[in-house]
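Reply to dn_fold:

You asked what the input looked like. This is it:
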Amino acid sequence: MSRRTFKGGVHPPEHKDKTKDLAIESVFPFTKTVVIPVTQGGAPNQPLVKVGDTVARGQKIAASDAFMSVPVHASIAGVVKKIEPRAVTGNIDALCITIVGDDSGTTAFMPPLDPFACSREEALARVRDAGIAGMGGASFPAHVKLSPPKGKTIEYVIANAAECEPYLTIDERTIAEQAEKVIDGLAIAMRIVSAPKGIIVLEDNKASLVPGLREAVSKSGHNNITIEVCKTKYPQGGEKILTLAVLGREIPSGGLPADIGCVIQNVGTLRAVSEAFREGKPLIERGLTLSGGACETPKNISVPIGTLVGDLIPERVTLRPGVAQIISGGPMMGIAMANANFPIQKNTSGVLFLTRAETVLVNESPCIGCGFCMRACSCHLSPVLIMRALNGGNYDEARRCGLMDCIECGSCAYVCPARIKLVQRFRVGKQLSREELRKKQELAEKCAAVQSSATGKGTAEQNSASD
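and this is what came back:
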């Protein structure tokens, strides 16, 4: 079997040995309380419940009419105690619904639906009603991905099992323990978008999963699903990187995988798709990895969405003294958190408790123009030129150098000898660039309106004069 790869990238220490062989444990917060963000991907939702309401597990508690939105469901049965802003991943406040469990165990799942007998519209509605958003990190609404624009023919659905972030092993364990559900979810996605082929992509540090996957594919009867093994390199799991390595197709600047005939879904997302049809179960649980040098009991767990990380300590996970940093996600693309009192969301793939030796807590030095960042960039951009343009406030130049094509993987910052926080600068730069474009658009519309008004007035005066 060939080992495909891409140009650029980095090889950070994997740190996966601590958890890659540990089975996923079902864990419940000892407080019997969850804090569920109202919006977890897509357009903002509005609460459907009020304080004092009794809710069932799986009941819809927040939703929006917007197409680019996914509803949120109660992950436990209990009573709504609060609806208020709380700190979430990103160190921002977001509206959350706090539910205290009542031990009733009542559920409000949807009836099972045959994914291969229902219509495409019914299938898409089921994916949306189940609240499924991308579980690889971006939290993009799954039903939107499975609704490619008109005129786009989808040839492949790719199951992204690269899991290239250090420490994280939840996708690996999901395949090892629930390969049948992953294959079923992939087949359902292929049916929805009418794709003739499916591909499961792994890195070669997970090649031991291939025999089990082959067996699951054989049992499923879906002979149009194949397995590809890529070389282990970060950021192999990025959509733009994955399609280039596996298919030799490059997603165009500003484009989507659908532009090159692909739909890409994380393996956890595909498992959730299978459960939504076969069990009627909404996305109310999240598998994730707890690890890091300061974590004495690293493990893979599955918890109700909305579980506060702090409510797992120390009853469910034990920490060593000297926690220098808490990261939501992986160390390359994750976000450092102020404390552990934040909820686990649909896109929380891991929580890391790192020691000082595992972090880079140093001040930036001036850029020396070494070009290491350019060689490491998997998107073939020029991070140093983007940074210089941003420092000068020249957003047009930053966009010309590829600012909006940056996938924020962190490879450039990883190799930078000056320890410049490039990813953070690019994230802020993107926000400022979008704001600049928005203001330019508003100005252009105002100018067009004034010109139209003046033209109309002039025409009226000419008509009056001719009369």
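The first helix runs from residue 120 to 129.
Hope that clears it up.
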